[in-house]
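ARCHIVE CARD
CATEGORY: sequence design from structure
SOURCE FIELD: tokenized fold
FIELD CONTENT:
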């Protein structure tokens, strides 16, 4: 796997057109993977990614938005990763790893000791990314407790 040159990861307003386009593409992809009713969890509010509670990050390749991810403080010691996405044509270039590393830095900035996330059992690439970055499976938490296709994971910072 190559590392893509020219990739910059930085903050983005969750209400921006760039964020809307990336999240729209993610939602469309997830609905194709999980057509069952009630299997997708899309909630992320702008106040949850405010600088003192989290962040919404966008990866750009030579200025073009190609991926995103968010972190929101779950409790004083824990933050949840949300909305991880890389455009299909840009996958396999290390962009997801770059976004994930930037989100981990945001977690440290927020002072949390633990990151949690939810992904789906049908997302082998996402599971490999998270496992490779040191995340381990945990029982479902929060809004995912009754979601049979959810895979929840954690990592200690």
């Amino acid at each position: 796997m190559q590392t893509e040159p020219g990739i910059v990861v930085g903050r983005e307003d969750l209400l921006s057109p760039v964020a809307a386009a990336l999240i729209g593409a993610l939602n469309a992809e997830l609905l194709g993977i999980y057509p069952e009713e009630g299997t997708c969890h899309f909630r992320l509010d702008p106040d949850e990614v405010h600088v003192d509670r989290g962040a919404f990050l966008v990866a750009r390749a030579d200025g073009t938005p190609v991926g995103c991810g968010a972190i929101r403080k779950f409790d004083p010691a824990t933050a949840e990763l949300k909305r991880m996405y890389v455009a299909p044509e840009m996958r396999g270039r290390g962009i997801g790893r770059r976004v994930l590393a930037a989100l981990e830095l945001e977690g440290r900035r927020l002072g949390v000791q633990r990151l949690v996330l939810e992904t789906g059992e049908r997302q082998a690439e996402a599971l490999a990314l998270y496992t490779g970055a040191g995340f381990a499976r945990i029982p479902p938490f929060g809004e995912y407790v009754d979601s049979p296709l959810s895979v929840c994971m954690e990592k200690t910072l």
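CARD ANNOTATION: Strands lie at 7-11, 54-61, 64-75, 78-86, 114-120, 136-138, 150-156. The first strand starts at residue 7 and ends at 11.
SHELF: design records, drawer C
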